DNA sequence: CTTGACCTTTGACTAATGTCTAAGGTTTAT
DNA sequence: ATAAACCTTAGACATTAGTCAAAGGTCAAG
């Protein structure tokens, strides 16, 4: 079991952040010592890891709470509701992946054009790099026009 | 050219948000009318699109500002600095993609286990699904039971 | 020319996500 | 058995990213 300071420092967050997550129902330590100290288990540690990882890819604490609340139970009649939530999150994740793949491509182009790279540096900003494959990747966008 | 309200409503953001981005150096309209109205070009529209997309994948406005400031110029002696920034962002993007791919796999498992899927629902929460990935990297069972 | 929908600015307000302070109790090492 | 380093709570403060309100200017339609 970990005390708050141990868990916090091992993830480079503040003790206060863990108390904050607890207050908001995201991570409640599984135990308390006799004197009231929070005691976190390995499972609690995994939950914290999940929270922090989900945050880095743009999920809010509310989103994360929802993700953590998912419990699949095939015999439960709320199952269809769960599937709706799961599938919605799955779609969101897939949209994010597509977005990031696009950024990745553009950043690679820029990186390759840097410092005497063979690239023409015709795309010298991320916007131009993004645009250079916008027509392949994002058919939703159409032509430029001026008013 | 678009006035603020046109651009804002076409991206479902508030006029105030555009003024906020301007104040923070993210998106300055290319023109002003004689009477002082902001006038946005197609290029400005692309910048806004970029800002909003980058936000959904977890970049802060400060990150986005940095991304927008990247300008590759092979003849410029600041080029190495640019490459450092670009490569750092590229790594960040790749970490995010890896994170999301992991989530995606887990959510798929949960979705498949839902509502009479053949899956054992042994992984009934996202945490368990995430963990099962660590041991068992084979996400292949198809569902065929009655619904 | 007036009306209403738009725009301007400045500055105050809000929500989400922490972070810090104060006043005190606990644990561990010397 | 006392200091150092932990922990507790409640509540104030900070930062990020907007959002709203007030007081007024602009523009197209009737």
Automatic annotation (TrEMBL), chains A, B:
One of its GO terms (molecular function) is DNA-binding transcription factor activity. One of its GO terms (biological process) is DNA-templated transcription. It comes from the Bacteria. InterPro entries: DNA-bd_dom_put_sf, MerR-type_HTH_dom, MerR_fam, Tscrpt_reg_MerR_DNA-bd, ZntR. Residues 1-70 form the HTH merR-type domain. CDD domains: HTH_HMRTR. Keywords: DNA-binding, Transcription, Transcription regulation. Pfam families: MerR, MerR-DNA-bind. PROSITE patterns: HTH_MERR_2. SMART domains: HTH_MERR. This is MerR family Zn(II)-responsive transcriptional regulator of zntA. It comes from Marinomonas pollencensis.
